[in-house]
Amino acid sequence: xxxxxxxxxxxxxxxxxxxxxxxxxxxxxxxxxxxxxxxxxxxxxxxxxxxxxxxxxxxxxxxxxxxxxxxxxxxxxxxxxxxxxxxxxxxxxxxxxxxxxxxxxxxxxxxxxxxxxxxxxxxxxxxxxxxxxxxxxxxxxxxxxxxxxxxxxxxxxxxxxxxxxxxxxxxxxxxxxxxxxxxxxxxxxxxxxxxxxxxxxxxxxxxxxxxx
Length: 212
Hints:
The protein has helices at residues 11-29, 41-46, 106-122, 142-152, 157-164, 168-181, 187-199, and strands at residues 2-7, 33-36, 49-54, 74-79, 97-100. It is α/β, with parallel strands linked by helices. It folds into 2 domains: 2-134, Response regulator (Rossmann fold), CATH 3.40.50.2300; 142-206, Orthogonal Bundle (Arc Repressor Mutant, subunit A), CATH 1.10.10. Helix 4 (142-152) packs across helix 6 (168-181) and helix 5 packs across helix 6. The chain starts with a strand and ends in a 13-residue tail after the last helix. This is LuxR C-terminal-related transcriptional regulator. InterPro entries: Sig_transdc_resp-reg_C-effctor, Tscrpt_reg_LuxR_C, WH-like_DNA-bd_sf. Residues 133-198 form the HTH luxR-type domain. Keywords: DNA-binding.
């Protein structure tokens, strides 16, 4: 039995992936599947496959629940934007991740998932790869944390400058650095990433740039 987490609240989204993955694992590997939604340390420890719908830049953020996941498990990152995240910059907990885009043909999605599962079976993650102090997840300076926090609360650049008592050009400079670090191209992508970080804020190690 293959235990699969689909981390998404959208029922149609989950149903689509349940149908696809059930077919792949039954036809290609002769294995049945069981599904749950939502990631926490308990569910991650039991999962063979985790599917995450990634917001722009999210693949650079620390997700502490993934630290508990089974070391030979597969993470499937479903990204919406044209740019595939940089694999060589992933945090350690994202080891054994493959990226898919649902705009690709089903045949291509299937082959990516099959190849990813076979790779995980051949090359399990080793314990030495899970040293958090050596992790490359992205972080920002204290001042950039303050600017990002105000942006996440809906403040305008002028309001941020007044609140932090800095020049508005400095606000834009910090914003540009934040977007560059996470490879973001628009205010919409920035706000979506900040929303993801807000959801993770209850665990301090999950918040590389937020302090709300």
